[in-house]
Amino acid sequence: MNTRRKLIIGAGAGALTGPWAGNAMAQTYPSRPIRFIMPYAPGGSSEILARPIVQELSKNLGQSVFIDFKPGGGTTIGADVVAKSAPDGHTLVMMLSAHAINATLMPKLPYDTVKDFAGITLAATLPLVVVVPAQSAIRSMADLIATAKARPGKLTFASAGPGNTSHLSVEYLKSLLGLDMIHVPYKGSGPAIIGLLGGEVDFMFDSLSSSLAQIRAGKFRAIAMASARRSRILPDVPTVAESGVPGFDVSVWYSVLAAAGTPAPIVQKLNAEIIRAMRAPEVKEKIEGFGYDIVGSTPEQLDSFIKSEIVRWGKVVKDSGASVN
Asked: Which helix (H) or strand (E) holds 263?
């Protein structure tokens, strides 16, 4: 091979690994429909947040972005699908706080919570609301605590699944106050709401967006907000901290992840497009109307945040004694 031919081939190979390759990769992505895994059953807070974002993404990217529900295993079934998917940005997942909780709650995860995922963005946060059926005799957080103390091992609470924030928030409350209450897990917030409506359980710490319709319809009574501050959506509902549990503060966060090894240009494009979609006026209005606070972090900020949340919730899991085999 002559010297001139070697130089041409060498230059071409360099271009494929340089900035031109990154630009070309981002410009041609996505090349087919994007599968957006939802690790919960339909009707929950993750779908309420994701649905308008996905619709806007489909329009902006020129490719279909479709939601694929994979509930069960405390979000691990859906997460595992993404962890083992091709790292090309065509399979994403919306993971909630449970993603960090599971790192210590479940000792036998089929994936590594940190190493097997590429963070795209911390999309939003949402307060939890403590709800009881409208016909319940429990009318306040003080009532709930008093009932639990008077009837140890009798009061039941629903959750969107083992290790979900709706589960661990009650475990946290139990550990702080020495309460004995029975956990009844469901495969997502939607089924848990149905269970609470049907009288299968006594109460639930639920994402505000999921229970808001039932609260407004008079079917649920909101007795407290689990976050540090009252919600702008339900300003008359006191916080758990205001109701006799100082310092109590639990909210849900929502992140978008891809498989580890997804090329940086694709990660950056997804980050920019998801933030753009969330901040589109109609989408923003809809999201904030359900009580979400839009965040829109960088991928690096999300990765650091998840690591810090693993530490934070690891302490809650240890202190509460909660575990899922």
From this structure: none
